[in-house]
Design brief:
Number of helices: 2
Shape: globular
Radius of gyration: 13 Å
Distance between the termini: 39 Å
Number of strands: 11
Length: 124
């Protein structure tokens, strides 16, 4: 069973920063696109950021462009991270690390593999 484990969630003030990390099985890191999805209470799941298997391409939701950065994480074995800056109250959600063999599925909020999620709460 593929494992993706998120860490780094928590609380922050609006305008602050948080960094999420995701450790994953090596074979999915080497063969699939990886990304972050989020789901706020009462809202549909949405994609936040995606990085291609080669790390050459990234995609961001319009709502986070210029504020969030996704990258492979050399400090986390077989992982990716999401650096979140200038946080806003609307960023409050459960964030999931996800992986799939097609980035278009991740962009639609779909996935083949997903972690348990980590809560991010931003207070204004």
């Amino acid at each position: 069973q593929v494992k993706l484990v998120e860490s780094g969630g928590g609380s922050a003030q609006a305008g602050g920063s948080l960094r999420l990390s995701c450790a994953a099985d090596i074979w999915i890191v080497n063969s699939g696109d990886m990304g972050w999805l989020r789901q706020a209470p009462g809202k549909e799941r949405e994609f936040v950021a995606i990085i291609s298997v080669t790390s050459q391409n990234t995609w961001y939701a319009d709502s986070v462009k210029g504020r969030f950065t996704i990258a492979r994480d050399n400090n986390v074995k077989n992982g990716v991270y999401l650096e979140m800056n200038d946080l806003k109250s609307e960023d409050t959600a459960v964030y999931y690390c996800a992986a799939d063999y097609r980035e278009d599925r991740l962009i639609r909020g779909q996935y083949t593999y997903r972690g348990q999620g980590t809560q991010v709460t931003v207070s204004s």
